[in-house]
Design goal:
139 residues, alpha+beta, eight-stranded mixed beta sheet, globular
Length: 139
């Protein structure tokens, strides 16, 4: 199996602007804003100043509306860590392997994510209560 790594930590927030100040004060560098209408979310990415191989990323997630997944998360849990994203070399192969093991998937087929990625979510009931996002970066 090729290497996997933590891709980013997703944090649900009511305001990208309000939450950004803290991460910028820590020294994280804002690398871009994105809209994923399919997921109903506005996204702001931050990277640490570490080298490419050891980079740490933060993804701030603001709902487009209250009925989006992030909107419902905020209504139920408030602001905070919403998901842990794991970078995988082949997302469909990973989905298939997890499915063969009986892991409950939210997405059985990858969907477009931000910044040229494909993503799929693993249900928290199979991960110790953590929503895990699988991420494949496309060439």
């Amino acid at each position: 199996m090729d290497e996997v790594s933590i891709d980013h930590v997703g944090i649900a927030t009511n305001s990208l602007e309000g939450a950004s100040e803290f991460w910028e004060a820590l020294g994280f560098i804002r690398t871009g804003d994105h809209m994923n209408e399919q997921q109903g979310v506005s996204i702001r990415m931050f990277n640490s100043t570490l080298n490419e191989d050891a980079r740490a990323s933060i993804e701030l997630l603001e709902p487009i509306g209250p009925d989006s997944p992030i909107g419902r998360f905020l209504a139920n849990h408030g602001e905070g860590i919403q998901q842990l994203a794991v970078r995988v070399p082949d997302i469909q192969d990973t989905i298939d392997r997890l499915d063969d093991l009986g892991v409950r998937m939210i997405d059985r087929e990858p969907v477009p994510g931000a910044t040229g990625t494909m993503i799929a979510f693993v249900h928290p009931s199979c991960t110790g209560g953590v929503l895990v996002e699988l991420v494949e970066h496309l060439p």
